[in-house]
Specification:
The chain contains 8 helices and 10 strands. It has 240 residues and is an alpha+beta fold. Strands 1-7-6 form a 3-stranded antiparallel β-sheet, covered by helices on one side. A 3-stranded antiparallel β-sheet has the order 8-10-9, with helices on one face. It starts with 5 loop residues before the first strand and ends in an 11-residue tail after the last strand. The model is unreliable at 235-240 (pLDDT under 50).
Length: 240
């Protein structure tokens, strides 16, 4: 059976019914490394960070049918390692208490943010070696001189010739989210220069990426979003 990609979007400040709920809930649900990272942030960035982490934890807990407080964050970074002291990189969780204490939960996760929105993705019971990456972008963030030169491969730049206005910005966002999703899936991140990746034409990349429509994500209609999954049979919904 192909892996099933599960998605959830959260609007800005969605961790509670009222603003400030992140500060109330974070000490109870988040782990020490996550809280320490949040403490180093400016208030606006902190609120977005806490909202995303709380949403991700609750998303994972709901899929696993366990209390969110029973999960311990266990991030994995290619440079820093894996464990409860890591607060960045590829997300994951272990279980507290019970017979499964300390075991990694059977869940692949990825998170992305744009303009205060959070997009979450998961695969339950992933097979060995399966990897996942998602990304979301507000097209308005691509509206600056020099974007194409720093973000797009030459063939991609050629493909955007003649486009302008909102159409151009949406296409930039589409390509950018493909690149970010791919680099999250591989674990390379921006250590790989994005302009060296051709996500529009390279078949080895395109076959593992698909664009995500607003109807799937629940995001604003003009946002770009993409997912990368290292498993070819999921390609029934591959976008061009």
């Amino acid at each position: 059976m192909p892996p099933l990609l599960l998605l959830r979007s959260c609007p800005p400040v969605c961790s509670s019914e009222w603003p400030g709920g992140q500060e109330r809930d974070a000490p109870e649900l988040l782990d020490a490394a996550e809280l320490a990272r949040a403490d180093a942030m400016l208030p606006g960035t902190r609120a977005v960070f806490l909202t995303g982490r709380l949403a991700q934890r609750r998303f994972a807990a709901g899929l696993l049918d366990v209390p969110a407080s029973d999960l311990t964050a266990c991030y994995s970074c290619p440079r820093c390692g894996t464990g409860p002291g890591i607060s960045h990189g590829r997300p994951g969780y272990t279980l507290k208490g019970s017979a499964g204490a300390g075991a990694a939960v059977p869940l692949l996760l990825s998170l992305s943010r744009a303009a205060g929105w959070t997009l979450l993705a998961a695969v339950i019971d992933p097979g060995p070696g399966l990897r996942l990456g998602i990304d979301v972008e507000d097209p308005a963030r691509t509206d600056f001189d020099g974007f194409d030169a720093v973000a797009l491969a030459p063939a991609e730049q050629q493909g955007l010739r003649g486009l302008s206005g909102r159409v151009l910005l949406r296409e930039r966002a589409r390509l950018w989210t493909r690149k970010e999703a791919w680099l999250k899936m591989t674990g390379d991140g921006l250590r790989t220069a994005p302009e060296t990746l051709d996500v529009l034409h390279d078949p080895g990349i395109r076959q593992l990426i698909r664009d995500l429509a607003p109807a799937e994500t629940g995001l604003p209609a003009d946002f770009g979003a993409a997912a990368a999954l290292s498993f070819i049979p999921w390609l029934g919904k591959l976008s061009g």
